[in-house]
Amino acid sequence: MKRISLLLLILLTLSLACSNNDKVDLTNVTFNFNHNWDGTKVTNADFNTLKFTNAYGNQMSIERLRYLISRIVFQKSNGKTIVLEGYNLVDVTNNETLSFMPSTFVTTGEYSNISFTFGFNNEANTNNYADLNTASWNVPDMLGGGYHYMQLDGKFLNDANEEQGYNYHAIRAVDTPGETPSFPQDTFIVVNLGPTTITDNATFNIEMNIAEWFKTPNTWNLNELNQTLMPNSAAQIMMYENGQNVFSLESVNQ
């Protein structure tokens, strides 16, 4: 009888130990989006003034900046992932939606990588989103439909030293606009933030260096590439290439 009682006690102890080891906590995560021009902070208070100079040497302003963030993924070292399927239209122009808290909780612990998608991946880009329609975020059907990834607009001083408008709009790269457009390559960008350990209510502070859109590897001359860039697949691919180093993780607060 004593042996049976001792065995039951050992099994109970092991069971409780396993339960404690398997315990996981759920927490919120928040993503804050901040903006700079090669290290100098940028807000909408800096808009509508020719105060920026891109890598080519164009003196320019920003009048509107909006971009889409979607598909946030938390990846474990064992390959398991938590996918937060929501999206957020960051509107720097109106100083709105600069902070995004997905409705899905994540588990605390170590993650080998955290990523998000700039724009929509191709599958998500075929869906219909009422709020994005209201925000005039659509791409015309003749250009493949779906939605913008980014709208960056302003003015620059051209070679004649006159102010001229530019529309740096990122979408899915498209060829042969019309009834049967084709897509030469994907131009949404998966941004990898690297590993982190989440303990409680983590806030990720993300930086966008706006200057990078005009810098690397393609030095952007606004005299040559300023408008009608959406049907220009070569320009879209250049934007995709320049966008690889635009975002970075500044810090994680928790």
Condensed summary:
The protein has 254 residues and is mostly beta strands. Helix content is 14%, strand content 37%. The strands form four sheets. Strands 6, 7, 10, 11, 12 and 13 form a six-stranded antiparallel beta sheet that branches. Strands 2, 3, 8, 14 and 15 form a five-stranded mixed beta sheet that branches.
Rounded Rg: 23 Å
Low-confidence runs (pLDDT<50, min 5 residues)?
A: 6-21
The main pleated sheet reads as: 6 strands, antiparallel
Fraction in beta strands: 35-45%
Distance from N terminus to C terminus (CA atoms, Å) equals 52 Å
Oligomer: single chain
Helix-strand makeup class:
mainly beta
User: What's the total helix number?
Assistant: 3
> In the residues, how many domains can be counted?
1
- Measured as a percent range, the helix fraction is 10-25%
InterPro entries: MbnP-like_dom
Pfam family, one: MbnP
Signal peptide: 1-19
Domain Copper-binding protein MbnP-like: 28-226
List the helices and strands and how they pair.
Layout lengths: L1 H21 L3 E2 L1 E9 L2 E2 L10 E2 L5 E2 L3 E12 L5 E11 L7 E2 L5 E2 L1 E10 L11 H5 L15 E8 L5 E8 L18 E10 L3 E8 L23 H10 L4 E7 L1
Parallel strand pairs: 2-14
Antiparallel strand pairs: 1-9, 2-3, 2-8, 4-5, 6-7, 6-10, 6-11, 10-13, 11-12, 14-15
Describe the overall structure:
- It is built from 3 helices and 15 strands.
- The protein is mostly beta strands and 254 residues long.
- The protein has one domain.
- The strands form 4 sheets. Strands 6, 7, 10, 11, 12 and 13 form a 6-stranded antiparallel β-sheet that branches.
- The longest helix has 21 residues.
- About 6% of the residues have low confidence.
- InterPro entries: MbnP-like_dom.
- Pfam families: MbnP (PF20243).
- It comes from Algibacter pectinivorans.
- This is Copper-binding protein MbnP-like domain-containing protein.
